[in-house]
Amino acid sequence: MATTTAIIAALDEAGAIGEVVRGCLRHVDEVVVVDDGSTDDTADRAARAGARALRNDRNRGKGASLRRAAAQARGELLVTLDGDGQDDPGDIPRLLAALHEGADLVIGSRFAGRLEPGAITPVNRMGNLALTAALNLLYGVRLSDTQAGLRAIRHTLWRSLPLRADRYEVETEVLVRALLAGARVTEVPVTRHPRTHGRSALHGLRDGSRILACMLRLRLGG
Q1: Could you tell me if 4 and 26 are in contact, meaning their C-beta atoms sit under 8 angstroms apart?
Q2: What is the signed CA dihedral for 192, 193, 199, 200, rounded to 10 degrees?
């Protein structure tokens, strides 16, 4: 059986990260958490829960933190998820099963699965669906949730992709570069929970614009 590492970028998620790490360790061989310049004890709580915890000296962004985590991961398969407790580690086996069936990248679709009440704001839901529609149009695919953070990917594929995204556009860059490389991409339904601790650092308009710009740049060969 292939070994698996869960990689997590976390910013001020001390209230949730311990349970996320413990949930992941029921299904993966190791968890690597990068504390992206938190002002709380996110890294310490992740380590106490069983993760390898790394600290950024300052906030460098989700993409930069996931790239750092992946560089330290020992697993043949990688699982990415958020550190805020909204992604359900119980869905990890479903993602890994799709890899074992031949996929190279598996997206955990919130829109094909279950969105619990309060899991996403109406504005963010519309923004996600609009970005998904744009990516489908630009790249000729039919996906339901291109911005989902809960994913599984072969480590060899991750290493082969020339990833440069530092912030929330990382999900778009990974997906698009995988598609351009001819990777087999599929989706499985997952559950998304409401946030119970802290608040998101995502800025809808700014980060949405950055994500769209990433799609367009890569479509033009950038």
Answers
A1: no
A2: 0
Interatomic CA distance for residues 84 and 195, integer angstroms = 7
Helices (H) and strands (E) in the chain — how many of each? 8, 7
pLDDT-wise least confident of 13-17, 54-58, 157-161, 209-213: 209-213
Residue indicated by tokens 């440069």: 164
Distances (CA, A) of 210 to 91, 116, 168, 173, 213: 29, 27, 8, 11, 5
* Confidence (pLDDT) at 63: 97
Residue type for 166, please? D
State mean pLDDT over 77-95: 97
Assigned token pair, 5 = 């590492």
> In sequence order, what DSSP letters do the residues of 86-113 get, joined into one string?
-B-GGGHHHHHHHHHTT-SEEEEEEEEE
d(CA 193, CA 125): 14
Q: What is the CA radius of gyration of the chain?
A: 16
pLDDT value of residue 120: 93
Assigned token pair, 134: 């744009």
Query: In the predicted model, what is the mean pLDDT of residues 149-174?
Result: 97
